[in-house]
Amino acid sequence: MLLTISTIHPPATDLGYLLHKNPARPFTFDLPVGQGHVFYPEATPERCTVALLVEVDPVALSRGRQGAGSMPLEPYVNDRPYAASSFLSSALREAFGTAMTGRSKERPELAAQELPFEVHLPALPSRSDSDLARRLFGHLGYTVTSHPHPLDPQFPEWGESPYLDLTLSATVRLKDLLAHLYVLIPVLDDTKHYYVDEAEIDKLLRHGEGWLDGHPERELITRRYLKHRRALQRAAQAHFSDEDALEPPRPVTLNLNDQRLEAVKGALLSSGASSVLDLGCGEGNLLARLLPERQFTRLLGLDVSPRVLVRARENLRLDDLPGSYRDRLTLTQGSLTYRDTRLRGYDAAALVEVIEHLDETRLWTLERVVFGDARPGSVVVTTPNEEFNARWASLPAGDTRHEDHRFEWTRAQFQEWARRVASEFGYAVTFTDVGEADERLGPPTQMAVFRREAS
Ligand code: SAH
Q1: Where is the Methyltransferase type domain (predicted)?
Q2: Given 3-state DSSP classes, what are the helix, strand and coil percentages for the chain, each rounded to the nearest 5?
Q3: Alpha helices (H) in 72-173, listed in sequence order
Q4: Are 237 and 222 in contact (CB under 8 A)?
């Protein structure tokens, strides 16, 4: 992965003094997972550019993690070598530690001065939100130019990849520039690691000093920097100026999403299944709940979207799980509208909020694939109850809850569909409410549990 910082402040080569790295001498240093290199692709009095190149060894990264992933080569072929991430932040600190403190032996007055800088990050992850980089750096006074890389330049119709080519320019102190990059690069990458501890709060507060407290995205920055660990977030929050304005802790009642996942998990547990398919697994919310249950010895998560599978891998921290857990879980890409022999031989399958994402006229393909061909012993299906939408004040009548929902069914429609499928494919079906039911409108979510009948 690569980062360059340029300046045109004359004499531009003074950048070498500020960074304590001689433009004439390339510098190489070791990192826990590879090597870093500092060198100057250009060094003239008019313009000087320093490059920090980090070579991450993906094999070293995945050592002891064999068997992980949705594809056999995933531990070896992934974005870690080129996508800007916390490895780049660590390398920044390693290479430019003194500059980050704002000290410069030779040019102390220059270190204290705001200078024109331009930063280029050729591959910055932007998985969920392509506008985030602009918001994060824009608020700090940077002019942000970015464009997404195509997924594959050979196939423009495949669209954009979740990586940006990003250029930042601003007149800032070098110390501040480095602190912004140090904190915000891992925030944009948002990869979860298994181990984060209190030391991270300290780093965040130290490098966030003077700018983080008032940043409109402070909450997001803190959350992502601390790897979504609530306890750490709360501890960090106590250091911010508006600590008193802190929202009261959320009530302990489960939200609908949690209730749904718990209901599905319960149905799967009581089906006696040990091997389970999570079909349309999305970001892995159900799998995260199934993984700790010893009853489930074989789990397969399938989704049509490679992008959500990347999130699922991260959310499940698959790369950091001990081998015994990892070997139980496979994530794979596939579509429920095509017969897939990999889905055969499982005890149970879950389709959580998935059927409504297919065109109603194509639903029969899923029925054949799941009930006709994969034929698990039990199938748990959930879908919104359309009648309940009247309870959501923000939903005008006739609207679905999610823009990607192709249809939403009333209880009668869902039950009619489920009974027809059951009788066609030799299953028995029962129905359960999920979430707090309205007397008249029924529950927000409806669930059907199918059990294959002895043939
Ligand atoms: N079950 C998950 C995700 C629900 S969203 C949860 O409850 O959190 C619906 C998911 O179905 C999306 O991730 C979408 O990518 C996936 N999906 C839609 N059509 C699909 C198809 N034909 N085959 C497989 N997955 C599909």
Answers
A1: 277-369
A2: 35, 25, 40
A3: 86-101, 108-111, 132-138
A4: yes
Give the residue-averaged pLDDT of 252-262.
79
Report if residue 212 sits inside a domain: no
Q: Best of 340, 357, 434 to mutate for ligand 1, by most ligand atoms within 8 A of CB?
A: 357
Model confidence band, residue 246 (pLDDT cutoffs 50, 70, 90)? very low
Does residue 200 form part of some domain?
Answer: no
Residue 66 pLDDT class (50, 70, 90 cuts)? very low
Region of 317 (left: φ > 0; alpha: ψ -120 to 50; beta: rest) is left
Domain that holds residue 125: 2-194
Name the residue among 229, 231, 233 with its Cα closest to residue 192. Answer: 229
Give the total number of structural domains in the chain: 2
317 is a domain residue = yes
Query: What residues does ligand 1 touch, defined as CB less than 6 Å away?
Result: 280-282, 285-286, 303-305, 308, 335-337, 352-354, 357-358
User: Does the predicted model carry a pTM greater than 0.85?
Assistant: no
> Is omega for the bond preceding 148 within 30 degrees of 0, making it cis?
no
Mean pLDDT in residue range 409-418:
97
* Pocket perturbation via mutation, ligand 1, pick of 256, 354, 368, 380 by most ligand atoms within 8 A of CB: 354
Q: Are residues 397 and 275 in the same domain?
A: yes
Half-sphere exposure of 2 (CA within 13 A, CB side): 14
183 in the same domain as 272: no
For residue 337, the domain's CATH number is 3.40.50.150
